Amino acid sequence: MADVARVAGVSSQTVSRVSNGFPGVNEETRKQVLAAMKELGYRPNSAARALKRGEFRTIGVITFTLSTTGNVRTLEAIAVSAANEGYAVTLLPVSAPTQDEVRGAFSRLGELAVDAVIVIMEVHLLDAARLSLPPHVQVVVADSDAGDRYSVVDTDQAGGTRDAVQHLLDLGHDTVWHLAGPVDSYAAQRRADAWRAALTEAGRAAPPMVRGDWTADSGYRAGLELAERPDCTAVFAANDQMALGLLRALHERGRKVPDDVSVIGFDDIPESGSFLPPLTTVHQDFAEVGRRCVAGVLQQVRRGESERGTTLVPTRLVVRESTASPRAR
Fold first, then answer.
1. Is the whole model's pTM more than 0.90, yes or no?
2. pLDDT tens digit string along 168-185?
3. Which residues pair with 89 in a beta bridge?
4. What pLDDT is stored for residue 329 in this prediction?
5. Which stretch of DSSP H or E encloses residue 32?
6. Which residues, in sequence order, are CB contacts of 184 under 8 Å at separation 6+?
7. Which residues, in sequence order, are CB contacts of 291 under 8 Å at separation 6+?
8. Dihedral sign (CA 177, 288, 244, 186)
9. What is the β-pairing status of strands 316-318 and 280-283?
10. CA spacing 20 to 30 A to 119: which of 87, 106, 135, 196?
11. How far apart are CA 31 and CA 9, in angstroms?
């Protein structure tokens, strides 16, 4: 810094102000300092800055899978939002969704320079009594019902499901079948519970639930089963990928969509409008979930205190061509 100051003909304090982006520096002086930095190959030492300020301007993100659309898009939004706030992101993948692996990920945070952590993980792995958080590290959890122990940001799973079921009932279907996600998924369970509750509130019987694992292959296998049910005229799939496999199975078995069976998904992935037929689905605003996670955890960092409670991000129904009124039997 002293060398830059000498070449630029300014004080070290001015160099510091320019390198930290502080206002109040004459534009011509700023250009001189930047030119001197470039000439000398000067780069601010982030480690030294962190020691001086007591902050690392880095957010840790813990997740045990990047294979699902929701996790990938939420992580992307977190990285973009963090960068806009001047923060970097350190990803801590957990190889298996076990308590020991989660505890190990939190332990590694103590060895890394992070100010806060965002967890994208199922709630049953977050046993507060068994996890030791690094001191002064604030936490926000995405896709969870741990609002009594952590600050949580989640999509309105129940509201989106109710909209999907009501849309199919309003079209005239007697009931709605459900292709659910895996049993250990919080999101899948919340959607399944809301599906059953919506049918009960409408005075309709809930058919036997079939289950997949979020993949198109599992949707295809479930679809082969549902295609053999002549009383199945409407299906709510817990995500768009399973809906894709379901559409293929129905097509192969000669059940036309939406003439014979209406299909609705959840997520509104970018490709859902290109399915055949284009898929009616529930839109999740993953970008907003990511933004709120970053905003929430940085608010905690700046206040120096943890917060509890759940923030729900609204969903919206996107009606396309895979749903219609049941044709007369």
1. no
2. 999 999 999 999 999 888
3. 59
4. 44
5. helix 27-40
6. 97, 122, 124
7. 77, 81
8. negative
9. antiparallel
10. 196
11. 12
